[in-house]
Amino acid sequence: MITQNVLENSVQFVKGVGPKRAKIFKKVGIENIRDLLYHFPSRYEDRRHILPISKLKINQLQTLKGKVITNGLRFIRKGPAIFEAVIGDESGNILALWFNQAYLKDKLKVGSEVMLYGKVEIKKAKLVIINPEYELLENGSFEDSIHTANIVPIYPLTAHLNQRYLRTIIKGVVDLYAPMAAEILPSNLRYRLKFIHISAALKNIHFPKNEVFYQQARKRLIFDEFFLIETINAYLKKKIKTKLRGIRHKNKRQLNNLFSSVIAFELTPSQKKVIKEIKQDMMSPGPMYRLLQGDVGSGKTVVAFYAILLSILNGYQAAFMVPTEILAEQHFSLFKKMLKDFSYKVVLVAGKLSTGEKTKIYKKIKEKKVDIIIGTHALIQEGIKFKKLGLIIIDEQHKFGVLQRKTLKEKGINPDLLVMTATPIPRTLSMVLYSDMDISVIKELPPGRKPIITWWVSEKKRVDAYGFIRKEIQKAKKQAYIVYPIIEESEKLDLRDATRMYEHLKNNIFKDFNVGLIHGRLSSKQKDSIMQDFKAGKIDILVSTIVIEVGIDMPAASVMMIEHAERFGLAQLHQLRGRVGRGSFKSYCVLVSNARTANAKSRLNAMIKCQDGFEIAEKDLDIRGPGEIFGIRQHGFLEFKIADPQRDLKILESAQKEAFALIEKDNFLNWPQHKQLLNYLKSKLDLI
Length: 688
Ligand code: ADP
Ligand code: MG
Prior knowledge:
α6 crosses α20 and α7 runs antiparallel to α9. With 688 residues, the protein is an alpha/beta fold. 37% of the residues lie in helices and 19% in strands. The protein folds into four domains: 79 residues, no CATH class; 102 residues, CATH 2.40.50.140; 184 residues, P-loop containing nucleotide triphosphate hydrolases (Rossmann fold); 159 residues, P-loop containing nucleotide triphosphate hydrolases (Rossmann fold, 3-Layer(aba) Sandwich), CATH 3.40.50. The chain has 21 helices and 22 strands.
């Protein structure tokens, strides 16, 4: 199909591609011409330096130029066909060999001028170059060489598409289509910041003539990636603040009394400050769109509870969405307990409900017979209609994608939205991910918390760790978690698993204690009853997988042992460890691991040294790089091709500043000079 914008045309129509190869391209995510233009090299090789044959150095990659003096095919028994050519210049000769490329005999004819690039060796006292990249110099000039004699792009390799082929195809596309790329940067911005035109950038990122051109192209394209996201964020923020009519919650006299009658402790200064910020947002006419960051155990739930009270006292419903059923259950029983003396109704929407029960609950939600609705992503499923949704709270935000945020938001008439995360987000990333939101931070933990004493021991010391756990839980009412990376024995991985270890611990090591087992494959009913038993102290040691990673609040648990700790990411370990130390007594975390890799060692050492979530997040970013964390990839439009928020922080800052300034002037990109930009954003995002 030929579309209006040629860059959207399928790669199939590109010279040298065709339907069959188009399928291969599609497998690696390249569907149209724009995708090809934006398929950037992963590195470059500088092949500009051409040496006389006599000056070539052994065992180095080099470029040479000469004439084909003799050529021929050689066949060895059972081996591949070998094409041989002797190449010579004024200074000497070299033998070039290609395996399995018999067709070259028709290309590299005697007398033709060629350029070769490859590793030079000495075989039987002769200079030899094996499987070099070659280029025919048709009119004696190598101005246009793309495989040799220039700075040559090396693309991320994809099966069935070799470098030479890809380079040739992309060269054709760049020559033909880069000049047609739409310039989305407003020209005054482009001149002021001295950026080259997008067409030049696309040409020079693939085939730079020199370093300066390359750097200009790179800078321009990195800026583009950040600028587009920041413009989207700025646009959304502006729209939320000015266009959307939100709910104007009113302050209620009973609010503070009601709150303090159910909360037993004094709020920390941070909690107070954050509550004030949230309240202000909720009472303003525009919708709240706020991110609450607070380390594990910093007390985000009560803050959420305050906001919920404000909303229901105003006669609205409040939805509280959490990533796991265990957590939904926990919040449900906490809220029910806190509100037991009041007439407000709390419901749980969970996977375990029968269809009949669900229908009943959905009906109640629709008719506003219930005020607080707690659930997992079941909450964003089609069936649920709210009568009067005033507030949405999303706990442990990092587990949800942007899309889920958006879908839930569409359920009410611009309800206030508060998303909470215990994964501290390094500034660079939050600049990219959340610059459309307002941000509140809980800086300190409630008083009396002691650092969780953390050890890393080798597997040889496991028995000692058992002994320590035994001693610890013998103290009044203390409990322990023992965490494994997998549920059941695996053929592929030689790891201890939760199921078998549970049997072993229950029957041998901790016979005299109550041992429980929890993991993701249990039904929600089973999970519930185990967590209830643990809470009630009927279980002393809970054997578990990563299911307890987020949010679980069991103040009596004081020791955690994590087996094969090297298999968990740093952020995961921090979250897991956050399950203990939630009371005021000393808590411990024992990491068991025979880690050998530098990466694993640095993670485990970081756990011993730091307790602070922000510090750990920064370390994690260093160790893993930004792509892995926070599932940036799954955000779709946040997939960076060339930019790296951490490395390119300066450009990011500038892009953010420019984008917000632009939207400040032309709120909704209505000016004619912003038309291309608006069109582009529209093509990426339906919410504009
Ligand atoms: P998170 O921020 O990880 O969600 P929670 O909200 O689950 O943390 O709170 C952790 C624990 O700290 C809970 O048991 C909670 O009751 C308690 N808590 C919260 N705020 C305070 C406070 N200001 N003083 C004492 N304990 C608090
Ligand atoms: Mg929590």
